[in-house]
From TrEMBL:
Assembly and binders: Homotrimer.
Keyword hit for Transmembrane helix: no
This protein's UniProt keywords: Carbohydrate metabolism, Lyase
EC id: 4.1.2.14, 4.1.3.16
Gene Ontology MF annotations: (R,S)-4-hydroxy-2-oxoglutarate aldolase activity; 2-dehydro-3-deoxy-phosphogluconate aldolase activity
Family, similarity comment: Belongs to the KHG/KDPG aldolase family.
Name of the protein in question: Bifunctional 2-keto-4-hydroxyglutarate aldolase/2-keto-3-deoxy-6-phosphogluconate aldolase
PANTHER family: 2-DEHYDRO-3-DEOXY-6-PHOSPHOGALACTONATE ALDOLASE-RELATED, 2-KETO-3-DEOXY-6-PHOSPHOGLUCONATE ALDOLASE
Species of origin: Paenibacillus campinasensis
NCBIfam families in the cross-refs: eda (TIGR01182), PRK06552.1 (NF005119)
Functional pathway: Carbohydrate acid metabolism
Pfam families for this protein: Aldolase (PF01081)
Matching SUPFAM superfamilies: Aldolase
């Protein structure tokens, strides 16, 4: 089923680029450079003016159906606060929906259309409430409120929870988050700030490449450790 396939693909990809900007054109350019650098999961936030234009343009250019395709990428929507916005982004082409907090109606709508939804969670109550509504992945947000050790602490009583930290994840601590058991990680301003400061968008591709190399290294280390 497509929903389950997408969830597995997001986990395999490991890194989600969370993109904010001043226009659809700017975010499209950011996304193209992030994908060029190897990050294949793009989250266009709804704080971007006319964000749906960026989602539609990217959804038309890239496909999630074939990971081997040159134009492979998964395009989703972030900062979705309500079910009305969720439906609009799905119609625009978003293949997954991310929220900064827990909203029951948003989760139910995404479930209705079999679209992966990742609500934000700060407390155990948030995570349990999400699981009860059939959520497959919760977004630990803001991640910089915690250290990576929070994941095994949460997964002690909730081993079935898939947790994706977003906010505060960087090249220095990505390894720790993966070792701690993160389902995937979300990367925000650290990916784009240098490009926005200098106007050199190639820096996004360079930073994306660095993130993917760090993720691959962390994943390989974790597998080797598991094998003993």
């Amino acid at each position: 089923m497509k929903k389950l396939r997408l969830i597995q693909q997001i986990q395999d990809a490991g890194v989600v680029a969370v993109l904010r900007g001043d226009s659809p054109e700017e975010v499209i350019r950011m996304a193209e450079k992030a994908i060029e650098g190897g990050i294949k999961v793009i989250e266009v936030t709804m704080t971007v003016p006319f964000a749906n234009e960026a989602i539609t343009a990217l959804a038309k250019k890239y496909t999630s159906s074939d990971p081997e395709a040159d134009n492979y990428a998964i395009i989703g929507a972030g900062t979705v606060l309500d079910s009305e916005t969720a439906r609009i982004t799905i119609l625009a082409g978003a293949e997954f929906v991310v929220s900064p907090g827990f909203d029951r109606d948003t989760i139910m709508l995404c479930n209705r259309y079999r679209v992966p939804v990742m609500p934000g969670a700060v407390t155990v109550h948030d995570i349990v409430a999400s699981l009860e509504l059939g959520v497959d992945v919760v977004k630990l947000f803001p991640g910089n409120l915690y250290s990576p050790s929070v994941i095994p602490s949460l997964k002690g009583p909730l081993p079935q929870a898939n947790i994706m930290p977003t906010g505060g994840v960087n090249l220095d601590n990505l390894h720790e988050w993966i070792q701690a058991g993160a389902f995937a990680v979300g990367i925000g301003s650290d990916l784009t700030k240098d490009a926005l400061k200098t106007g050199n968008y190639d820096l996004i591709a360079d930073k994306a490449d660095a993130y993917m190399k760090a993720f691959d290294k962390a994943t390989a280390f974790k597998k080797a450790k598991a094998r003993g």
